[in-house]
Amino acid sequence: MSKLKTLLKNLGPGLLFACMAIGTSHLVLSTKAGAQYGWVMIIPILLANILKYPFFEFGIRYTAVTEKSLIQGYLNLGKKYLWIYAMVTIVSIFTLLAALYVVTAGLLMNLFQISSIGLSTVALGVFVFISSVLIIGRYKFLENSLKAVISILFVSLIITTVVVLQKGQVPGADSFQRPEIFNEVGVLFLIGLMGWMPTAVEASGWVSLWSIENTKTMKEKPTLKLALQEFNLGYFLTALLAVLFLIIGWMTLYGTGTELSGNAVVFADQVVNLFTVNIGKWAYILIAVAAFATMFSTCMTAHDAVSRVSIDVLKKLFPQKIAFQNKNFFAIVVILMAVLNWFVILQFSANMGTLVALATFVSFVMAPLIGWMNLKTVLGNDIPEEHRPKIGLRILTYLGIVFLSLFALYYCWIIF
C-alpha cells in the first residue's frame, strides 16, 4: 500500500504523457476504427502501443539516470542530430497546436451550444485561458489540474463503456459490408491509426523535459525504478483508454452504415450525438464532457511541451544567447506559440488538412530516425551499464524501428 501511495504521489511525466496522447488518436481514430472495422482493430492499436513503448521509455530512462534532457543526449550524439530534432519541432510548432485547438474549440462550441461566435474567436479564448494557466501555474499546477481532468475523463469513459456493453451492440443495417482493411483506403487509415498511436515518437523529448520539471518539485530525486513505474502507469492508461474508445465506437456505430466525417470537429459532434441516440439523452453531457476533457488536456500538455522543447533546443543550439536563459522566457514562448498558431487558424482554417498532412508526413518519415537516436542515447557513455535497457527491450526497440521504417516507406510510396 505504501508503494502505491508513493507511486501516486510521484505521478507526473506519465500522467502528462497520458493526457497529451489521449487526443485525436483516441477520440477520433480509435472510435472511428471501432465504428468502421469492428473489434479486429484492437490488434493494430495494441501493436502500435507495444512497439513504440521503448522510444518513450528511453526519454524517462535517460533523464532519470543523467538528470539531463533527451535533447542534451541528441547533442551528445552530434549537433546534426539536434538539428534534425529541431526541424521536426518547427513543423510541430506551426501545425500541431493549431489543429488541436481547432478541434477543442469545436467541442467547446458543441458542449455549450455556441453558435453566435466564430470558431477562431472561441479558439482564441481557449488559447488565452490555457496560456494563462501555463504561465501562472507552471508545471506543478499543470500536473495537479490534469489529475482532475484525467479522473473525469477516465470515470466518464468507464461509465460509458459499461452502459454500452450492457445495452449490447446496435443492430447493423442489412446492406452493411465491412470495409476492406488491406485496400489503399484501409491501409492509409491503418497508417494514420498506428502512426499516431499513442502519439508521435518525437514526444519522447517532451516526456524527458517533464521528468526534469517533476524532479524539481520533489524533495528527493526519484529512483530509475520509481520513474519508470510512474511512466508505465501513464502509458498503460493511455493504451487502456484507446481500447475503451474502440469498444464504444464498435458497440454503438459498427454495422449501422453511418457515414463518418473526415473533419475532426464534425466527427466529434457526430460521436457525441450518435452516442446519445444509442445510450440515451441523459448521456449527452457525459459524452460531451469526456470528449472535451480529452482534447482540452491534450491542448494543455502539447502547448506546454512544445514551448519547453523549443526553449531547450534553442538553449542547446545557441548557448551564447543570453535571452534564452531569461527566467521569463518560458512565458514569452507560451504566448508566442499561442499567437503563431492562432494566426495559422485564421489564415489556414480552410486548409488545416494540408497542414496536418505536412505534420503527418514529417512525423512518419522521421520517426524511425528519432527512435534510433533515442536508442543511441541510452546506450551511450552517459548511461552506466547497469541502467541501460536489457536485451528484451533492445530487441523490442529494433522491431519498433523496423515497424516504423516500413510504415514510413509505404507512406512515402502512397504519397508520391
UniProtKB/TrEMBL annotation:
The keyword Transmembrane applies. InterPro entries: NRAMP_fam. It is a multi-pass membrane protein. Keywords: Membrane, Transmembrane, Transmembrane helix. Its main location: membrane. The chain crosses the membrane at residues 40-60, 81-102, 114-136, 148-165, 185-212, 233-253, 282-307, 328-349, 355-375, 395-415. It comes from Flagellimonas eckloniae. It is found in: Membrane. This is NRAMP family protein. GO terms for cellular component: membrane. One of its GO terms (molecular function) is metal ion transmembrane transporter activity. The keyword Membrane applies.
